[in-house]
Amino acid sequence: MATSKIDRLMLDHQLLDAGQEQRLRRARRTAAVVGVIAIAVFVFSILQMVWLQHNPPQHPQVTDSLMQ
Amino acid sequence: MAQAATHDHHDEHHDEHHEHQNFFQRWVMSTNHKDIGTLYLVFSLLMFFIGGSFAMVIRAELFKPGMQLVQPYFFNEMTTMHALVMIFGAVMPAFVGLGNWMIPMMVGAPDMALPRMNNLSFWILPFAFALMLSTLFLPGGGPAGGWTMYPPLSLQSASLAYVVFAVHLMGISSIMGAINIIATILNMRAPGMDLLKMPVFVWSWLITAFLLIAVMPVLAGAVTMLLTDKYFNTHFFDAAGGGDPVLFQHVFWFFGHPEVYIMILPAFGIISEIIPTFARKPIFGYKAMVFAIASIAFLSFIVWAHHMFAVGLPLGAEIFFMYATMLIAVPTGVKVFNWVATMWGGSMTFETPMLFAVAFVILFTIGGFSGLMLALVPADFAYHDTYFVVAHFHYVLVTGAIFAIMAATYYWIPKWTGHMYSEFWGKVHFWNSVVWVNVLFFPQHFLGLAGMPRRIPDYNVAFANFNMISSIGGFLFGASQLIFLGVIIHCVWFSKKKATDRVWEGAKGLEWTLSSPPPHHSFSVAPVIHDEELAHGHVED
């Protein structure tokens, strides 16, 4: 079954064989998932600090509990 | 190989596109992993010399006791900028460049999975560093509170916003690079290239990329909070407002310690490629090497507070972090043992890459041992913030990471350019580097043990002799790197000696099945993998 050129995935202007193209589609999904994880880590690292900012009594306990 | 012939024919067609590109399209708009790898490596070399020039200022000022050449604030700017430039500008981009060049060729992929993002992740870097280096010329001066940016000192800097924005850009670049590497390795491998058949360098980069994803956003979060503390009236790290400056140290080192491993794990991978080639034996304990890298990466997340023993941690914490840190010596010891066991009984030859690799094994181990000394809480109270620490991390990062990058350059540059470098001048570069780097850093152990604090422009006359020796070593080590530059320039533009496809007699792996230099596009059609072609085709240990 011929695939039109416009639907074909290209890497650095090179057309890929069907197997490579399938692997590339999977790779893009993996990249999206990893990107979302990176953003989540960034947001979490700030949110926990904001939480501590609004809960000053917990501040020393949390710092210490990291250590125990 | 029939498959290779098909693939070459395929590439001829696509290389026409590349031939019609002008300089701007080729280098600025490039989406080719080899070109972007070259850009990273050239950028890294430039930053290596800029960061090195800052080090020369530091060693010139410390040549004699007393204030000699520069003002104290400028000295502090130099120590801070030297670290930031070397870590984020020289070492990390060099490894990303090596990864870009080699990973797709090693796993039989046509390119990185996301070529346009690859281009963006490189081109962010020059702007980030232009921004950061420009602070040296601003009225308030550049950052001078150390690369760790501890508050409240860093909050006094007029250039904090510039530096934070630059760090954000570097972080975005690193994260995009890591995403690309993970997606490429997990998905783009040629059929038959199982995970446990991948070269150790590819494994080391896969694990490093996960480290980057886990910790670079944390650094971004920490410096964002610094920024809001300075400009938006928050008090995350301000004790007067209910915040805690020590909390910044925890968050920073949660990033900072894995960052140390981000700078050394790819080096482990490089050395694990080079030693088997020149020992003409498969690596001893392939699986153990991979698991050791993974173990080191895991342990790097639970040792961060060993950088903070002196801030007054609870005793239980100090004991936990001390033992966890010492535990890292186990997988690291496995790696050193396996490198030595690979060499044992091998038909060894000592071309320049192998010389750097052997020097790496010996000198990195010295850095590892001084790290063990620093892991001991009672000892660390004496060593903390002394030149002993400076000696330790320079043995790990210069004779470790940078020697590995140099070894990799000599190892792969014939493949990249199609020309052999000058073996004579490579060896001249090696022997000068290995002698002067020890003259530079070994006396700093004695200075630290004698109590000389780090990050000061002046010192007690009792420290004069070792400082003078160290500075002489520094100047000559710096000058030796001009030989490195000369060897590279000669190899790229003037060398008449053609490299063969395999380049090194004992080299194994898919990358060596390609021509030297490899075609602009390689593996558009997935290669047929023959296990005997791979360094680890038959993994049994």
Automatic annotation (TrEMBL), chain A:
Give the source's domain of life in one word.
Bacteria
Transmembrane portions of the chain: 31-51
Which keywords does this Swiss-Prot/TrEMBL entry list?
A: Membrane, Transmembrane, Transmembrane helix
The name on file for this protein is: Uncharacterized protein
Organism this protein belongs to: Dyella lipolytica
Task: Give the source lineage, highest ranks first.
Answer: Bacteria, Pseudomonadati, Pseudomonadota, Gammaproteobacteria, Lysobacterales
UniProtKB/TrEMBL annotation, chain B:
Annotated TM spans? 39-60, 80-99, 120-140, 160-188, 200-227, 247-271, 283-307, 319-341, 353-377, 389-413, 434-452, 472-494
| Pathway in which this enzyme or protein is active | Energy metabolism; oxidative phosphorylation
Could you tell me which residue ranges the Cytochrome oxidase subunit I profile domain spans?
A: 27-530
Q: Which PROSITE patterns match?
A: COX1, COX1_CUB
Q: Which reaction does it catalyse?
A: 4 Fe(II)-[cytochrome c] + O2 + 8 H(+)(in) = 4 Fe(III)-[cytochrome c] + 2 H2O + 4 H(+)(out)
Subcellular localization, as worded in the UniProt entry:
Cell membrane; Membrane
Q: What membrane topology is annotated for this entry?
A: Multi-pass membrane protein
Q: What's its EC?
A: 7.1.1.9
Q: Name one Pfam family in it.
A: COX1
Which CDD domains does the record cross-reference, listed alphabetically?
Cyt_c_Oxidase_I
Keywords assigned by UniProt?
Cell membrane, Copper, Electron transport, Heme, Iron, Membrane, Metal-binding, Respiratory chain, Translocase, Transmembrane, Transmembrane helix, Transport
Indicate where this protein is primarily found. membrane
On whether Metal-binding is a keyword of this UniProt record, the answer is: yes
User: What is the similarity comment for this entry?
Assistant: Belongs to the heme-copper respiratory oxidase family.
The protein's job, in short, is: Cytochrome c oxidase is the component of the respiratory chain that catalyzes the reduction of oxygen to water. Subunits 1-3 form the functional core of the enzyme complex. CO I is the catalytic subunit of the enzyme. Electrons originating in cytochrome c are transferred via the copper A center of subunit 2 and heme A of subunit 1 to the bimetallic center formed by heme A3 and copper B.
Instruction: Tell me what this protein is called.
Output: Cytochrome c oxidase subunit 1
What is the organism of origin for this protein? Dyella lipolytica
